[in-house]
Amino acid sequence: MTRYVIVGAGEAGIRAAASLRAAGEREIVVLSAEPIAPYERPPLSKPPDPDRGLLRPIGVDLSGVELRLGCSARAIDRRARTVELATGERIPYDRLLLATGAKQRRLACPGGDRALLLRSSDDARAIHARAEPGARAVIVGAGLIGLELAATLRVRGLEVCVVELAARALGRAVPAELAERLVERHRAEGVLFLFGARLEAVEAGAVRLADGTRLPADLVVAAIGVEPATELAEAADLACANGILVDSSLRTSDPAIFAAGDCAAVDHPRYGRVRFESWRMAGEQGRLAGRTMRGEAGELTALPWFWSDQWDLSLQVVGRCDPQRQAVLRALGSPGLVRFELDPTGGLAAAAALGPAGPVGRAIRLVERLIERGAVVPPSTLADPEADLRPFLRAP
Questions:
Q1: Rounded to whole angstroms, what are the CA distances from 383 to 329, 331, 379?
Q2: How far apart are CA 230 and CA 101, in angstroms?
Q3: Considering all CA atoms of the chain, what is the largest pairwise distance in Å, rounded to the nearest integer?
Q4: Are residues 131 and 214 in the same domain?
Q5: What is residue 1's predicted lDDT score, i.e. its pLDDT?
Q6: Percent of the chain clearing pLDDT 70 (strictly above)
């Protein structure tokens, strides 16, 4: 009987375990460094649910899976095929999945350790414990987590300032037209933005910028991105480069070891070598790993997709946006907007939408199907808010 060991109980690890169990596998061990049951991370930057609180369990059936909480893996012995825990215990495996996720980047400036991070439930609790109405919060980083947290804290009555080194928000993954609209929505709610601002130090009760500006702060949060958690893989001499290198089937340089989720740099057939940092792609990779670890054929072909709800606006992106591509804008009600991106052949390659949740969700789901279909839609049609794009799903 094959024994499967999974290191990490996030979205990728849990989905892999559920996939293995559903296929009839019985020897499945999941090692979680956290002492609490697996939970979804996206809600951590959002207001706590009045009924369910801060934590939302990952909705899968893990009956028959050995879930070991508070167990940190510290080494892999590839020759003996064992995982060594921090306690010294060794767990044997036939197939091993590394779903170790990512770790939040820390501020490198003097006093940077004063800033709180947001990656785990403990991080979220620490932030919410200090989020008193009237307090002054400085968020370093204008990415998705930084903006979501800015909205959450502002709703709770805090004064919020977002400090960003770059010239605009959401520079990595969201087109400028949509990012600017979202920032304006935040400003309308009283959030202050400082772009092109370099952090000099985090002091007691303040953040100091390189130009001498001193921002009073009762709460400082670093939201400057993440790095893949590859220490375990690197110590085991697995190939790594901005993530654990895996093929399109999620197999590492060791045929008995797989990797999935934020820690994995996947050889994607559409995009090449990519490390995806999104909830959906972590789940897709986990389910795929559950199949390929069993020896089934399969490769990661899913399109990346992510969403973020802020204030009364929903942001969704499908595909990988590239500012160098030809772009077409389309109004989506008021104040909605869709930005389509075309590849060199005129085919749809990606899209981003901002506006009310319902219209945005419908638009992005349709675009995703069009991209998968390889549809070519005339730019004039894409730009026309009255034009129906569904017939292009049937085009040869």
A1: 6, 8, 6
A2: 8
A3: 65
A4: yes
A5: 81
A6: 98
Residues 44 and 124 in one domain: no
| 231 shares its domain with 96 | yes
In a 13 Å sphere around the CA of 271, the CA atoms on its Cβ side amount to: 19
Identify the CA nearest to 179 among candidates 171, 188, 187.
171
The CATH number that applies at residue 361 is: 3.30.390.30
75 DSSP assignment: E
Domain boundary among 222, 245, 280: 222
- Whether 217 and 233 map to the same domain: the answer is no
Type of residue found at 211? D
- Angstrom CA distances, 172 to 96, 102, 200, 228, 326, stand at 32, 17, 23, 17, 18
43-57, 150-164, 204-218, 381-395: least confidently modelled range: 43-57
What pLDDT score was predicted for residue 244? 98
Half-sphere exposure in the Cβ direction for 58 (13 Å, CA): 25
Q: What is the mean pLDDT of residues 82-99?
A: 97
Q: What is the predicted pLDDT for the residue at 99?
A: 98
Residue ranges making up the domain that contains 234: 3-103+226-292
90, part of any domain: yes
**Whole-angstrom Cα distance, residue 163 to residue 166?**
9
Q: Is the dihedral of CA 90, 91, 95, 96 positive or negative?
A: negative
What would the mean pLDDT of 295-306 be, rounded to a whole number? 95
Q: Which of 162, 197, 222 is the last residue of a domain?
A: 222
Q: What is the pLDDT of residue 50?
A: 66
Q: Which residues contact 40 (CB under 8 A, 6 or more apart)?
A: 11, 55, 56, 57, 58, 279
Dist. CA 389–CA 392, nearest whole Å: 6
pTM above 0.90, yes or no: yes
Beta bridge partners of 49: 53
Q: What is the mean pLDDT of residues 270-289?
A: 95
Domain shared by 17 and 94, yes or no: yes
340 with 208, same domain: the answer is no
3-state secondary structure of 201: strand
Instruction: Find out whether 315 and 353 touch, Cβ atoms under 8 Å.
Output: yes
Q: Output the DSSP codes for 307-372.
A: EEEETTEEEEEES---TTSEEEEEEETTTEEEEEEE-TTSBEEEEEEEE-HHHHHHHHHHHHHHHH
List CB contacts of 41: < 8 A, sequence separation 6 or more: 10, 11, 119, 279
- Return the structure tokens found at 34: 């956290």
pLDDT at 52: 62
